[in-house]
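Try this one yourself first.
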């Protein structure tokens, strides 16, 4: 038995890899890549923590001087007047009004475009339409703002004579055009992710293409579509230049899209122009608004995650 064990040890030594040094270097490279990617993930977490800390610390200074109930439930915003008031409801109403207008335009057009490109369009036509959508996504938002002010608004005034020069409707339409490429491109990717076997099963049962889309593709990707819509909503809520240029800077508590409104991002842009010295209540108010916006977007992301887990179809 001793000779057999000794022979097995010799065979084991002979069967070891000849390029042991190269394997060790590969293992070292794998470890380095692993920790590099880990550091990238930790950096994003650290960035979020720093952002939240900076917003919360300055917002704390704001709420020392302004009661929270006045900020969250006040109906008048006048940060740069002698008779100051910091009620955020008019800004929230303006933000949600322009966002609702944008989504009412972007959702049907964006998802409809995605369905057409993924299921109906010929490859030659898709090669033309797809780059046009990508061009829309690359246009600077300041261009959309002046497009809304000098093109959309004058044309709307032909049909709506009482429309203000600065109004929520034109700004919302421009924002909707801006987020159409986002919704269309991501929805198209979601439709392409549907297993071909599911579609083939529908066609094998004699279903038409429209039936396959409505009964198979849409239900399968419903959670992704909802997440995409919420992403577009977050993009609209956080838009600054379009609403600052086209919607105006009038903090009015209204849901009338024909009037001039001020959004939360417009108020931040106004407070950050240098008119508010550092350390003043006007200056710290922009951090309070920014923290409020951050909380809204975070809640939207949590809702998106819940819907994705609740409705996701696994095959």
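Now uncover the answer:
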């Amino acid at each position: 038995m001793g000779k057999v064990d000794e022979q097995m040890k010799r065979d084991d030594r002979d069967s070891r890899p000849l390029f042991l040094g190269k394997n060790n270097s590969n293992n070292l490279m794998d470890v380095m890549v692993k920790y590099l990617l880990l550091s990238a993930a930790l950096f994003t977490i650290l960035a979020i923590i720093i952002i939240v800390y900076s917003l919360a610390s300055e917002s704390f200074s704001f709420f020392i001087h302004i009661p929270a109930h006045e900020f969250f439930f006040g109906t008048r915003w006048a940060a740069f007047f002698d008779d100051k008031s910091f009620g955020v409801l008019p800004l929230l109403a303006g933000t949600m009004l322009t966002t609702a207008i944008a989504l009412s335009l972007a959702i049907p057009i964006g998802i409809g475009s995605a369905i057409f490109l993924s299921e109906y369009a010929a490859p030659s036509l898709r090669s033309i339409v797809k780059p046009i959508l990508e061009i829309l996504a690359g246009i600077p938002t300041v261009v959309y703002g002046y497009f809304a002010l000098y093109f959309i608004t004058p044309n709307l005034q032909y049909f709506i004579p009482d429309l203000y020069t600065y109004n929520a409707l034109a700004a919302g339409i421009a924002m909707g055009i801006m987020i159409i490429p986002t919704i269309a491109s991501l929805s198209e990717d979601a439709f392409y992710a549907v297993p071909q076997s599911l579609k083939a099963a529908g066609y094998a049962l004699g279903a038409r293409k429209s039936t396959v889309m409505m009964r198979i593709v849409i239900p399968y990707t419903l959670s992704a579509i909802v997440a995409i819509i919420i992403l577009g909503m977050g993009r609209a809520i956080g838009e600054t230049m379009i609403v600052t240029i086209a919607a105006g800077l009038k903090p009015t508590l209204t849901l009338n899209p024909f009037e001039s409104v001020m959004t939360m991002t417009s108020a931040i842009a106004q407070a950050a122009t240098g008119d508010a010295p550092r350390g003043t209540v006007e200056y710290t108010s922009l951090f309070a608004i920014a923290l409020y916006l951050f909380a809204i977007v975070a809640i939207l992301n949590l809702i998106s995650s819940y819907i994705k887990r609740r409705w996701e179809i696994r095959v």
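Discussion: The radius of gyration is 28 Å. The beta strands are 77-78, 85-86.
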